[in-house]
Design a protein that fits this description.
It is built from 14 helices and no strands. It is an all-alpha fold and about 290 residues long. The longest helix is centred in the first third of the chain and has 35 residues.
Length: about 290
């Protein structure tokens, strides 16, 4: 196969070309070389990274060497190791940020620059300066970046931008993104869709989403009014927060609910908790070594 490809290249190279064709051919070859080089760099960095994860202490030195040679994947790995103190030393946020910045053409490294800049880790906090980095990462479907953009634009009153990124995050079943989408759907009076997304966010262990669903049942928006289900989701919210269902009698705000409905609501909540075990929750404040 390799001989056939080489023969094909030689045949093409032997064909007489005019100046424009020769220039285009040269550009194509340069791009092919860059792609091959980037692929090799990625493989070299991934090999050292996998060894590091398995406890090979020398692998960190290999990653540092590759990073200093301009390998962007290695630069991101080294940045993550330094930011998290994973090399056995105290975290070095400033140096980590420099490695991330060097690799910031990579969407994952761009996210890391964004989160450190946004939170002021290793540098002065600057939310606005972090946004272009988040956008680069969000366009590569890094859900944490989509969530930060959602929150940033929502607080800034730019609801269309917030809605767009919340929708993207919800497509990836992100907990916070799905909650914010449900919240904005309530504001838009799209109650049925809000209930659907709120229920999904609750299943992803968002207590705020469970409270939102309780509100929709209590007011009968997007569904039939049900004090029993409103109580159930209030109990679910406490279960998500505390790991257990509390006494339903504490919710004095739900006046007029019968003992039977209260007991059934508690039963629904207990069954829900039994069937929805707490997942591994995303930490939106940490840098990323790898895309999930």
């Amino acid at each position: 196969m390799l001989k056939q490809k080489l023969l094909h290249v030689l045949i093409i190279a032997s064909i007489p070309l005019n100046a424009a064709q020769a220039s285009a051919f040269s550009d194509a070859l340069d791009k092919a070389k860059q792609t091959l080089n980037a692929g090799q760099q990625g493989m070299d960095a991934a090999t050292a990274w996998n060894k590091f994860k398995k406890g090979d202490k020398l692998a960190f030195n290999v990653l540092v060497r590759l990073a200093k040679q301009g390998n962007p994947a290695a630069q991101n790995f080294v940045g993550w190791i330094l930011d998290n103190g994973a090399n056995g030393n105290l975290p070095d946020h400033k140096t980590a940020l420099r490695f991330f910045q060097a690799a910031s053409k990579l969407p994952l490294a761009a996210y890391n620059v964004g989160i450190m800049t946004f939170l002021g880790r290793g540098t002065v906090a600057n939310e606005q300066a972090a946004i272009p980095y988040f956008i680069t990462a969000a366009n590569d479907q890094i859900e944490q970046a989509q969530v930060w953009l959602t929150i940033y634009y929502y607080k800034a009153g730019k609801k269309e931008d917030a809605f767009r990124w919340a929708t993207e995050a919800a497509r990836q079943s992100d907990r916070l993104g799905t909650y914010y989408l449900a919240r904005m759907l309530v504001e838009q009076k799209q109650y049925k869709n809000a209930l659907e997304n709120g229920s999904k966010a609750a299943e992803l262990y968002s207590a705020d989403a469970a409270i939102l669903v309780a509100y929709l049942y209590e007011t009968g928006q997007g569904t039939g009014q049900s004090k029993k289900m409103a109580l159930a989701y209030r109990l679910i919210a406490t279960g998500i927060k505390n790991g257990r269902i509390i006494d339903p009698g504490r919710f004095a705000g739900l006046t007029g609910i019968s003992e039977m409905d209260a007991e059934q609501g508690r039963g629904f909540a207990a069954n829900w908790m039994e069937n929805h075990k707490k997942p591994t929750l995303v930490d939106y404040r940490v840098t990323l070594a790898e895309k999930k």
